[in-house]
Request: fold
Amino acid sequence: MESDEQLYLEVRNGSKAAFEKLYARYEGPIYGYIYRRLQSKQDAEEVFHEAMLAIFKGEALEFAAGGFGGWLFKVSLNLSLNRLRSKKREGRALAAVANDSTSVRSLDNWPDPEDLSAMQTAAAHLSEPLRQVYALRREGRSYEEMSDILGIPLGTVKSRVHLMVTQLRKEMSKWTAQ
Reply:
């Protein structure tokens, strides 16, 4: 089986078959990661395709410890954050036009518990840095990979994971006690 890095180099040299292999390899984990961040199938599909197309942009890359997968998760994170910012700007613009901020649902609002499991509901209530860690852990990323993807020290990742678990337990107890 070819490594991701080998396939990446083949893609850069024009191999459609190598691109299809990388696409198939990462479609599940990357799409799932993006979907959990954006909570929209359409947005997740668009961002996933943007992330995969990033393979063709710029100069050929040399990969750090996280390898191709770590790089692709980092690209996906950045594109997801850009999409969230764009959605928030759209929401503010619509609210200004309507002059009624209550008619526009903010992305930060508490999600309807009937739409999501208790864990997803609790995770949606986390701060943005903790949601990032939550999403990466759900994808099975190691602390070292999360550090590389998020561009933060390993100690900060460990601290955020601990805080995330504590907050999730607290929030889950509210939902499961009902």
User: Anything to note?
Assistant: The helical segments are 4-12, 16-38, 41-53, 67-98, 118-124, 128-138, 143-150, 154-176. The CA atoms of residues 133 and 161 lie 6 Å apart.
